[in-house]
Design a protein that fits this description.
Blueprint (H helix, E strand, L loop, with lengths): L6 E7 L6 H15 L3 E8 L5 H7 L3 E5 L4 H10 L5 E5 L9 H11 L2 E10 L4 H17 L3 E7 H6 L11 H15 L3 E2 L2 E7 L39 H13 L14
Parallel strand pairs: 1-2, 1-4, 2-3, 5-7, 5-8
Antiparallel strand pairs: 4-6, 5-6
Helix pairs in contact: 1-4
Length: 264
């Protein structure tokens, strides 16, 4: 009888032929560094490129998935795996070489129910740095984390995996439920300290909302306020957009400084 692997690393992927290879190479490096047994399951979700082939070439198990729900896709990967510990990571995220070392140690400790991971961005700018800070503060406030989720299979099953009724935010919901499960069983949610690297395509910069300095006499004219241009509407919350529309209709020549955080 085959020995049950220590880790099952689940990688949901939708047309990720450009980035999947580096992600799988990073997982392989982390497995070798930790000196553990592991299976890697790539869930090829409605792919029309070489995602499945790249997974096979890397020695991973490829699961063909047709769901239009990322929670269901993640669950499908876990269902196709057998490892003691479940780790989920997106195809465009690069796992830190020491991540599995830490997870293995934390799981053996017995005081932790599972957790997430700290993260780094593959490149940096002012807007990206501010966005990262906001995400980190949110994680601190909720006492959870993200990017790479890990827990024992028994705990994954106990909380019902990822909630397939949620079309978005399934990962944050999973973290919150895992933390509550830990509290109920006398264990803590713990983020891996070794940061995995996140693709900046996941991060919507806050640079348009971040005042860097005051205006100077020779500065070029300011850009139009995001929200007036349909191409930028998604950068502002709905309640801010509605306020901007009311100001435009009323002809108010001095709208509030949204970038400075004025009340709306």
């Amino acid at each position: 009888m085959a020995t049950r692997p220590r880790f099952s690393v689940i990688v949901p992927a939708h047309n990720e032929e450009l980035l999947l290879g580096r992600g799988l190479a990073a997982i392989d490096a982390a497995v070798r560094t930790a000196g553990v047994t592991a299976e890697v399951v790539v869930v090829a979700n409605r792919c029309t490129d070489r995602t499945e082939a790249i997974a096979a070439e890397a020695g991973a198990t490829a699961v063909i998935d047709g769901h239009r729900n990322i929670a269901a896709t993640r669950n499908a990967g876990v269902a196709a795996s057998t490892g003691e510990l479940v780790v989920t990571i997106d195809a465009d995220t690069v796992l830190h070489p020491l991540a599995l070392v830490e997870i293995d140690q934390l799981a053996k400790d017995g005081r932790f129910v599972g957790g997430g991971s700290r993260f780094a961005l593959e490149r940096i700018s002012l807007g990206l740095a501010l966005t990262k800070a906001v995400i980190e503060l949110s994680s601190l406030a909720s006492r959870t984390g993200g990017v790479v989720y890990w827990c024992a299979r028994a705990d994954f099953d106990e909380i019902g995996g990822f909630d397939e009724s949620k079309p978005v935010g399934e990962d944050l919901d999973f973290a919150a439920r895992l933390r509550r499960h830990g509290l109920a069983t006398g264990r803590r949610f713990r983020n891996v300290r070794s940061p995995s690297t996140v693709s900046v395509r996941k991060v919507r910069p806050l640079r348009r909302l971040a005042p860097v300095r005051g205006a100077r006499p020779n500065d070029p004219p300011p850009r139009p306020v995001p929200g007036h241009d349909p191409r930028h509407r998604h950068h502002l919350p709905r309640h801010v957009l509605l306020r901007l529309q009311r100001l435009t209709v009323s002809g108010n020549p001095n709208p509030p400084d949204l970038a400075a955080g004025s009340a709306v």
